[in-house]
Amino acid sequence: MTEFLFRDDAYLRSAEARVVAVTPEGGIVLDRTIFYATSGGQPGDSGKIVRADGSTIEIATAIHPDGDKTEIVHVPAEGATLPKIGESVTLELDWDRRYRLMRMHTALHLLSVVFPFPVTGGQIGEDKGRLDFDMPEVPEDIAALEAELNAMVRADHAVSTEWITDAEMEAKADLIKTMKVKPPMGQGRVRLVRIGDVDLQPCGGTHVARTSEIGPLSIGKIEKKGKINRRVSLLFA
Hints:
2 domains, 237 residues, 6-stranded antiparallel barrel, alpha+beta, Threonyl-tRNA Synthetase, Chain A, domain 2
């Protein structure tokens, strides 16, 4: 198992680690990592691995191999020289990109508050994100919802994480907003993200510490994607 340092501190920009495996495809597995792996609509982190001799391995993304959520594979840029098993290395994130993803991911949690409908999908980007809702009709006053959204941002709510057992998660199914993506269970516990007193839901992604870090937001296009499915775009204003 890889130790996911970002779960306890999403603001870690660098860390020491040890290479424990290199996959047949050339992916790098470490004993611990600050790189978030693609999942839950959030892209995998990019950055670099610095070797002891000062040379660097550019990391294009990070993934979970074959759906195994206990391990992360760091995917190097094409043509990179691979490290040796047992080698000690330093990890460095593309922090500007990660921080924008953290801000947008937290913003989408707030979007699910002002649009209180079941979520059927979502995607997190550096400048734009979106959620798909099981929403038969589009609310009439979008400007009012945007104002409510930005009021929650300015309120500077604390964002924190907590853990509950699988059994507790099953008993609190009302916390699950996503219809198609269920919280990862089977490992004994589930991670929840709490935003002040306005939102609580299971999530394994990275988030900012306070909503004021998100900055002003703008609700973009609302597109019809099915009989009762609507896609709501969210942008940094």
